Amino acid sequence: MSLLSNYTVIGGKASEDLAKKIAKKLEAKYLKSELRIFPDGESKITISGKPNGKIVVVHSTYPPVDSNLIQALLHVSKAKKHSSQVIAVIPYLGYARQDREFLPGEVATMGIVANMLKTAGATKVIVVDIHSKMALNHFKIPSKNVSAIPELVKYFKKLNLKSPLVVSPDCGGIARARDFANQFGVKFIALKKHRDRKTGMVEIRSKNQKQVKGRDLILVDDMISTGGSIVKAAEFLKKQKCRNIYAACTHALLIGDAEKRIRKAGVAKIVSTNTIPGKTGIVDVSPIIAKAIV
Ligand code: R5P
């Protein structure tokens, strides 16, 4: 860890707290950034102080996704004026679900976003639990995906759960659920979720799951957006007479009344990380990000 003073961390408004924590872990200089939004919606960024060494820009792109994306790009481009090495830490990377053309005519936006970060001046990108491997493949500069699962598992190990079982709300999340379950030392199952690609509506098409009866369940996902996936999974699992349901995710977007609907569906607690600030974001990912930077 002798290179630590070679870093300057700049925290965008979207990720100020997390950026400060990362700077502390790196023993790096922290520079504050001022954000002004003009009446027409344009963003103006002013960075206070002079960065030196390798520059780390920390800026999640959660909603408003497009504004936060532009702000992340503006920070990166300013950083590039001061250093040849700019590490863009985008803890929650928006657009990662649009990593391919699912229906004819769709734009695979992830590729465009990856190019924008490179063009703005990023020489390396670090993200946390990106939606898919395919999304990461769009980057033409070195990129690293950091898993928050070990940190989430640490949290759940402290709870006194009754014969816990990990559940993935869909088959796409099997690897994630397996990872979580292995690290936790328990078994996992995956439900069959169907999402209508046009309407976005979700339904669970699994057979009855007798093994959940009387057990505490941890629903594991990369993100909770509208809550549709977790709500449908929780309603299904409650019918199978499980005990308590916990929802664990890395990125809690919790759009609209998602949190209320998730609780109404019988979820006792939502636990997420601070890639997106908010009251469920209680698991700190700064140690794993700092480790990925050096
Ligand atoms: C889907 O493949 C993802 O892993 C999440 O399950 C999904 O994006 C969550 O979205 P929502 O909360 O809107 O169902």
Please give a structural write-up:
The protein is an alpha/beta fold. The protein has two domains: 7-147 and 285-293, Rossmann fold, CATH 3.40.50.2020; 149-274, Rossmann fold, CATH 3.40.50.2020. It has nine helices and 15 strands. It has helices spanning 16-26, 65-80, 109-120, 133-136, 149-157, 174-184, 228-239, 258-264, 286-293; strands spanning 7-11, 29-37, 43-47, 54-58, 86-90, 124-128, 143-146, 165-168, 188-190, 193-195, 202-204, 217-224, 245-252, 267-273, 281-283. The strands form three sheets. A seven-stranded mixed sheet has the order 3-2-1-4-5-6-7, with helices on both faces. A six-stranded parallel sheet has the order 9-8-12-13-14-15, with helices on both faces. The protein is globular. The mean pLDDT is 96. Bound molecules: ribose-5-phosphate.
